[in-house]
Amino acid sequence: MVERYRADGKPFNMGMVFPVSTHNYELRYWLAAGGLRPGYYSPDNTAGQIQADVLLSVTPPPQMPSTLEAGTILGYCVGEPWNQAAVFKGIGVPVVTDHGIWKFNPEKVFGVTDKWAKENPNTHLAVVKALIRAGQWLDDPANRDEAVKILSQSAYVGADEEVIANSMTGSFEFEKGDKRPAPEFNVFFKHFATYPYYSDAIWYLTQMRRWGQIGEAKSDDWYVETAKKVYRPDIYMQAAEALIADGYAKKEDFPFGTDGFKAPTAEFIDGVEYDGTKPNEYLSKFPIGLKDKQTVAGNQVVGG
Fold this sequence. Notes:
The protein is mainly alpha-helical. The protein folds into 2 domains: 2-101, D-Maltodextrin-Binding Protein, domain 2 (3-Layer(aba) Sandwich); 114-156 and 187-302, no CATH class. Helix content is 39%, strand content 10%. The protein has 13 helices and 8 strands. Strand 2 (40-42) and strand 3 form a beta hairpin. Helix 4 (82-89) packs across helix 9 and helix 7 packs across helix 12. The two termini are 32 Å apart. The relative contact order is 0.13.
């Protein structure tokens, strides 16, 4: 289809929510796994469309279905419920879920400034505890219907309950009538989902480097040191220990003893193995994307 558009002299446009969103990197990963170039960034060109076969642009999530319906974009990558909204309107079908691109991929983050954290340590710890308990509550199937009602309110997501429920209550509809079981489509606490693994942060850094948002090659140590500046498992485990002491959680709910790196995994759509301790080796495995000493200058990839 992309080749057909190119032959007709027309761009193949797709939407994503923000240049540093998980959606941008997962969409790029999926496209590249299929042999399509999603485009590069450079210091003087932040559109991310250099040498692109598919042109990605920012579209606000609630506007994704209407933008698709208008024909401005031909597809998009976004969180729920905006994929299911397209199914309900009969204007689009999901092709792949992020679970299919990277099984149990990390998603949303809670972040604060270093200054605020140092000035408000007790509040910071309390909020982390609250987030852990919220994740536990959300993972209980008995609470999902109530969660859907809350999310449907205009102060939050504001979509219809029926649309939100499609991905929140154990199923996912790929097109009208094609509803499939998806008990772990949304995971909020299980599988140590809330623990800030350094290897998760490093994966996103590798994708920033792969597509030129990080313009120069970095050492493996740089990736690890950068992740450790941002991810704070020490604070998370303080919160975990407090919850255990108060009887709100069990020790086995948390990854005590981890070094912050998940075991190497190849549970990606292209089967490429990722080891968070070897980011440059990982980058070298991809036929599409920057590697070694390559940079983007003007509209070309150079060096390497």
